[in-house]
Amino acid sequence: MKRTVKILLPALVVLCSCRKEGALPAPTGEQQTVKFSVRIPSASAPRAATRTQTAGECLVHDVEVLVFKKVGASYFFRYMVQGEQIAPGAPNTTNFMARLVSTSDEIKLLLAVNSGEAFTGTYSPHTGDTDVAVKAAIVRSFDPTDDYLPMFGEITLASGLNAASPPALPVTLLRAVARVDAILDLDPLSPSFELVSLAAYGANDKIAIIPAPVNTAILGGVLSAFLPTIPVGTAQIPSPFGIATAPKPDSLGAIYLPEAEAVVDPHYQFTGVTRLVVGGRFNGSSTVTYYRIDFNSGLTGHPFGQILRNHHYVFKIKNVLNPGWPTADDAANNKMSGVTAEVNIWDDLASDIFCGDEDTYVSVSKRNVSMHYRAASTDTLYIRTSVPFTVTLPNGAGTLSPGAPGPVTGTFCTYALEATAQSDLYAFVVTASGENRTAAARSEVITVHYGSWTFPVSVGQKTAQKYAERAVNVLSLGNSFGSLGGPLFDGATGTLMADILRNSAKDNFSPTGTVVTAGINTMRATDLSVNGYLSATAGSVNMGRLRPIFDAYNVIGVPYHINPSSDVCDELLQWVAAEPHRVLVIFFDDNQTAANMLPKIASDGVWDVTGHNTSTPFSFPAITPDNAQFTNGPFGQVDPVVTFGPADGTFGVCASPAATVTPILYYGASMAMGLNKSSRIVYIGDASLYYNNNYGTAKTAEATKLMSNLWAWIVDTVLAD
Questions:
Q1: How far is residue 392's CA from residue 413's CA, in Å, rounded to a whole number?
Q2: Torsions phi, psi for 483 (to 5 deg)
Q3: Are 563 and 591 within 8 A, CB to CB?
Q4: I need a labelling partner for 591 at 20 to 30 A (CA). Which of 10, 13, 247, 664 fits?
Q5: DSSP assignment of 179-211, as one string?
Q6: Tens digit of each residue's pLDDT (9 = 90 or more) over 129-148
């Protein structure tokens, strides 16, 4: 049975009685009734069961139409009227009428939708006010229980308003708040976790209904906010608010939040920022504990703590390491730990838009496709549709469709459309044609077409120049095999890797090297006089001293014969989980090395650190999509036929690594080196595989390529946007 997705609208509420009489200028002159058709895109596709749209996201309760006349280069306020006869129109649209004065002058119309108390005695625009001043003054309070989301629209009529005007003025609305959902999407080997509650702490108490002009741009007719607009006098709501639910849901939402600015000060990031707290039961426990999650996706334009209007933030809970804090307040006021959350962000004006009923839909997965500066880097846009569609490529390159999938060469990349196992889902794959070492990022716009609907998507390739200004800080917890040495490297145990990374020839890791970075700075724990702290326990003074030291580094290595205490191991795992640009490198070279870490990473595979046969060689895996960046990376392709013998019989191997782990070196049928890309943990069985020691086995040219390609991945992970 065909079901139609409807927008539910309440009866019109006339607000005139709430206004101060005579506070606003009345329209004068010959008037005409103008019909408006406002489009309110969905925040999620109707077939995404875990992100079902709520009716309130599209409710239009009241509309104020503010009219500005252009004089010179500026627009000046003339009058304001209310929208009348508000009613649903075509799918995803609402229609209303307004009585406006006919004019041949250029005018701009601002629509303030669901404006709350913004005009009820709090503020009245005056004739002659500029549109910039009026926009900045339209502020309402934020009430998490409000059923109506504030929205804003804008349209400019260059020829004025007269009988020749179109019968319905089309306006796209921009929501003034963001939506947040938490989804349980555990990795296969994560301990079980049951969602119980989701709460927001530190939300702002005011909303600027209209974003500042410098913070908006129009792309394909769609307004988008790139920076938050925070009203003067904004403060935090003192009490948390959120959702508690029935047992065992797969998601919690929707919570709506005002915009928030990015927070740089690390002290302010604890309590002075909007954050989430998830309540849940860990690994079958009957006790509810709590976990903090921050707005910290690591994506360009979305720094720590920033929340943007009309964006949908989906927190996918991927892995839960341990029980959380005993109370929600404890979790809210301490740093994120114990849970790995993947943050997916998109502008819901351009993503997951559906048209018509539930059986007629077209959606795009994201608004921006971004590739690395290196050649052959890729990114994928997913298009879900039940109807025919085409993709128009820029600069006359042509079009793609399911019947003509490409590939087609564009200005700086190639485009291809690939079918997937789901009949209504297509992968639009973009691949960089060459490196971008120019001073600026490359960019062009493609357009997805379905009937009269269009979805512009920006395609870009990053510039290497931005990475040339960023360094990578590496800490080795010890001074044995696997240590990179201190600031003035003076050991023999890491000579090969240190030479590659220190890059005296400036052709490996440098501003102009194969991998672009400002440099790689190395430090040993012994040089920081903290080696004694590695036996610290939770709550001890030494543990408190370790945490800020760990936070100062991007990469931490646990080398040969170093065995941090169980509590320090927990701290290391929490350290790497808390920030998407951190990498943890762990050695398993004998029974003592990282012995306390072994049970904590058992979900990724069990390591055997007993003696092994030196006659069995190490070997390289065949190239697969999963390991290609290591076996065929920026430092060259590794010959999979080449093998080389271990230095001695003491090293670790993993016979059955988890599906989440990518093997990058084998010992017979077992893994000798690998990594979990999602948790950013590198596992190394033998220090002599990774660094040069007295045996010199790592000087094998193919092994050097593999190690260098692995470090390219590490540096890319640290420096990624």
A1: 14
A2: -85, 140
A3: no
A4: 664
A5: EEEEEE---TTSPPEEEEEEEEES-BSEEESS-
A6: 999 899 989 999 998 888 88
The CA angle 509-511-516, to the nearest 5 degrees, is 55
pLDDT at 138: 92
Exposed, middle or buried: residue 446 (CB in 10 Å: 0-12, 13-18, 19+)?
buried
625, amino acid identity: P
Rounded CA-CA distance 115/96 in Å is 16
How far is residue 473's CA from residue 475's CA, in Å, rounded to a whole number? 7
List beta partners, residue 271.
Answer: none
Position 433 scores a pLDDT of: 92
Q: What is the pLDDT of residue 412?
A: 93
Nearest-angstrom CA–CA distance, 74 and 62: 27
Using CA atoms, how far apart are residues 362 and 399, in angstroms rounded to an integer?
Answer: 17
User: Quick check: 507 pLDDT over 70?
Assistant: yes
Sign of the Cα pseudo-torsion (534, 538, 543, 546, in order): positive
Tokens 């005993």 -> residue: 326
In contact, 155 and 23? CB cutoff 8 Å? no
- Distance, in Å, from the CA atom of 199 to the CA atom of 245, rounded to the nearest integer, reads 12
Phi-psi region of 660 (alpha: psi -120 to 50; beta: other; left: phi over 0): alpha
Cis peptide, bond prior to residue 416, ω within 30 of zero: no
Name the DSSP letter for residue 216. Answer: E
Q: Which helix (H) or strand (E) holds 543?
A: helix 541-551
Q: What are phi and psi of 500, to 5 degrees?
A: -65, -45
Q: Which residues contact 81 (CB under 8 A, 6 or more apart)?
A: 27, 64, 65, 67, 98, 99, 100
User: Tokens representing 712?
Assistant: 């390219």
Q: What is the C-alpha to C-alpha distance for residues 155 and 169, in angstroms, rounded to an integer?
A: 8
Residues 6+ apart with CB under 8 A from 549: 475, 528, 530
The length of the chain is 721
* Residues in contact with 369: Cβ distance below 8 Å, sequence separation at least 6, in sequence order: 379, 380, 381, 428, 430, 457, 458, 459, 460
- Report the SS3 class of residue 61: coil
- On the question of a cis peptide bond just before residue 407, with omega within 30 degrees of 0, the verdict is yes
Cβ(351)–Cβ(338) under 8 Å? no
Per the CB < 8 A criterion, the answer to whether 42 and 354 are in contact is yes
**Cβ neighbours of 318 (radius 10 Å):** 19
Question: Residue 110 belongs to what H/E stretch?
Answer: strand 107-113
Task: Give the largest Cα separation in the chain, rounded.
Answer: 97
Residues 465 and 611: their CA atoms lie apart, in Å, by 47
Instruction: Using alpha carbons, list the distances in angstroms from residue 396 to 390, 391, 393, 411.
Output: 14, 12, 7, 10
Summarize pLDDT for 189-222 with one digit per residue, the tens: 788 899 999 999 999 999 999 887 644 443 334 4
Contact status, residue 688 vs residue 697, Cβ threshold 8 Å = yes
Q: Burial, 665: exposed, middle or buried (Cβ in 10 Å; 0-12, 13-18, 19+)? A: buried
Cα–Cα distance between 616 and 124 in angstroms, integer? Answer: 83
Average pLDDT taken over every residue of the chain: 79
CA terminus-to-terminus distance, the chain: 45
Q: How far is CA 444 from CA 215, 364, 459, 549, 706, in A?
A: 21, 17, 5, 42, 35
Beta strands in 229-367 (DSSP E): 241-244, 251-257, 275-282, 288-294, 311-320, 339-347, 362-364
**Contact, 169 vs 35, CB < 8 A?**
yes
Tokens standing for residue 52: 């079902």
Q: Residue 470 contacts by C-beta under 8 Å, 6 or more apart in sequence?
A: 517, 518, 719
